[in-house]
Amino acid sequence: MIVYIYDFFDYDKHVRGGNMFQTLMHVSFYVKNMNKMKDFYENVLGAKVKMAVKYKAYLNQPGSGFYQGALTKPEDYCIVYFEIAPMQFIEFFPAYEGIEEHDVPFKHLGYSHFGVITEDIHALREELVSKGVHIDTEPKIGNSHTWQMWISDPEGNKIEFMQYTPESFQITGHIDE
Hints:
By secondary structure, the protein is an alpha/beta fold. The chain has helices at 11-14, 34-44, 67-72, 121-130, 169-172, and strands spanning 26-31, 48-54, 77-85, 88-94, 114-117, 137-141, 147-152, 158-163.
């Protein structure tokens, strides 16, 4: 259900329009429960596992941060990439002992949420609800004239789903003076 090209969206102008970068490649998270997160992103959101690396890949690399895991839990995954849209990924690492939680969204500097574009936000809402997902914020048009809806993944990370309209500031551009 996730797409990012529309009839009113000039891909060459907006995506290739002189930017230094082509696209956002990935966002990355440490997770407490890799299996639970894998199930949610794969079976609820429909993301596909594109790369999954087990600790044993680092058995011959004693200087790697994954080396201890290679010795103690070689069959566990240490890196998993989910493809959320063509060539755009969410990367997960298992949390290490002593890592602190980012417990309250919108209260700390740094990561806040990530957003993905959908073609039909209302159909996506119905699909997510049918899979038991709680909708934190129902679909609505935001100040940028773009549809938005919010959920949280099983570990509390905020996800914003957006659907462009012909008036979306992300398409038309908008800078307050």
